What we know:
By secondary structure, this protein is an alpha/beta fold. It is built from 14 helices and 13 strands.
Amino acid sequence: MARPAPDSAVGVTGEPFAGTDAQGRVRGFVDAHNHIMSNEAFGGRLICGKPFSERGVADALEDCPEHYPDGSLALFDFITRGGDGRHDPDGWPTFADWPAHDSLTHQQNYYAWIERALARGQRVLVNDLVTNGVICSVYFFKDRGCDEMESIRLQARRTYEMQEYVDRMYGGPGKGWFRIVTDSAQAREVVRQGRLAVVLGVETSEPFGCKQVLDVARCDREDIDRGLDELHRLGVRSMFLCHKFDNALCGVRFDSGALGTAVNVGQFLSTGTFWRTEPCTGPQHDNPIGGASAPGAEAKLPPGVTVPAYAEGARCNTRGLTDLGAYAVRGMMRRGMMLEIDHMSVKAAGRALDILESEAYPGVLSSHSWMDAEWTERVYRLGGFIAQYMHGSAQFTAEARRTDALRARYGVGYGYGTDMNGVGGWPAPRGADAPDP
């Protein structure tokens, strides 16, 4: 199969660099946090458009049905972008209103755009399979069920289908530039060949059903082993044990502002409890929750239930890494998987690092600026990797420079986490005349 025509252009000439440097090292950019397939998540209608389609670009880059004719029913676009949500729903070929840096509900990961990043030097991409059952259940539009593990399985399958799609374009099995890898040797070889090493990760609030309701775990060690074995068979090598809601494995690092209030409502709807805080015992702390209102989310609460107020001096989640969570960490280590400590409460992250340090286990990641910065040296000392969220250029370079000396001491590189298709928000273009930071 040749490249489809018509199609979105890669727009880069020449061949991607390959090989190693004089010291035998491979080189390239790392996007440590991306969600290629989240159009399949959250009930299937939160992220509009697909990263590829056998039927071509017009089918792939098509808006959700309810966004036609003018975006009036693009409710999540309204929530995340502001305004009234109205927009031109046509993606290809006009791209009038999307993709755009502030359009968080439309596809950001069309395969040709990822290929463009490869041509400009990217060599590793972590595809975090993501979903949230509560968001799925409360969102008005969906075309499938809300089981988190079913969504994870589907997204994994779609990622392998995308690899096959690219392979066919480049001459057959194994010949494409998009290569799913399951260990460091495979990743190094793919990068040496000038191709893109794709790591499968998982980012959900209730992995393998490990939720808690009224502080009672709804999973056990057998569920954890069964879940980790299944994910490992799918090719997953990186995962978060908790994301937005406290679960049976760990407590979370809070969201702030109106989003924090909305997520706290989701926490209550999922678990029967709101976040609970306490004074921190060390220099690390979780994000402030604040008291900003989120009327749309709060309307989902039962009559008479309100989001609690939080003391300014109590910045830490009372929930850390549970005994089941510690069992899951050790289970990941036995299977050679990497632990993401972003989104963990500082109490949970601290205990997880203790366990990793007890075994000198290097498989620890902070992929998009959700870890307390005080943990940075502990991660580097273990041999782990840190990537910064894709902030604006000035903020990104300032934060990178802050840890220059540490990275030089431990001989480690630095990455970015775009969180594309993750509804996180991205900086606007700097403009052609803006000075370099």
